[in-house]
Write a structure and sequence with these properties.
There is one protein chain. This protein has about 160 residues and is of the alpha+beta class. It has helices at about 5, 15-35, 85-100, 135-145, 155-160; strands at about 50-60, 65-70, 75-80, 110-115, 120-125, 130. It folds into two domains: about 5-35; about 50-155, no CATH class. It is built from five helices and six strands; from the N terminus they run H-H-E-E-E-H-E-E-E-H-H.
């Protein structure tokens, strides 16, 4: 029979001390970086807006979504039930954020196209925005079809292709 005391081996202290030192130095480095640069990381320059439109999306009694130009009050389109899943899901997420801070649907969403090709869906009520290009060109086109203005000039991607 083996005695339990004879097989017990304590955890080596060297790896444990090393782990604490690494974590401590990481925290000190992050704190120093924050102290030296309290404003945070440098932001990229904002590209010029080439097209923009304020839109309201309202639910109809039939289950359709009504797309309304906020500046004129004109109905742009009726989106049938079971269609436009990306648009509905995106707006549902933004509407949930508005509900969490007790903001209503009276503030329109803004769709913007930037000179660098970026397409944003902006919620001024919550100050959130979504870069629609992250979801691919097909999903971005769901919102860019409502834009008025010159066609997109994606200068960054043109330079990358050269």
């Amino acid at each position: 029979m083996h005695n339990a005391r004879s097989t017990y081996r304590p955890f080596p202290r060297a790896p444990l001390v090393t782990a604490f030192v690494v974590v401590g130095l990481s925290l000190l480095g992050a704190g120093y970086k924050r102290w030296v640069n309290p404003s945070g990381p440098a932001l990229l320059p904002v590209a010029k807006v080439t097209a923009s439109r304020a839109l309201r999306f309202e639910d109809a009694a039939t289950g359709q979504v009504v797309v309304i130009d906020d500046s004129t009050g004109d109905i742009i389109e009726y989106l049938d039930v079971g269609t436009n899943g990306f648009l509905r899901a995106t707006l549902r997420g933004l509407a949930r954020a508005r509900t969490a801070i007790a903001k209503g649907s009276d503030i329109p969403f803004v769709v913007e196209r930037r000179a660098n090709g970026q397409v944003l869906l902006i919620d001024p009520a919550t100050e959130r925005f979504i870069d629609l290009r992250a979801f691919g060109p097909t999903n971005a086109a769901v919102f860019t079809r409502y834009l008025v203005g010159p066609p997109e000039k994606d200068t960054i991607n043109k330079e990358a292709r050269l």
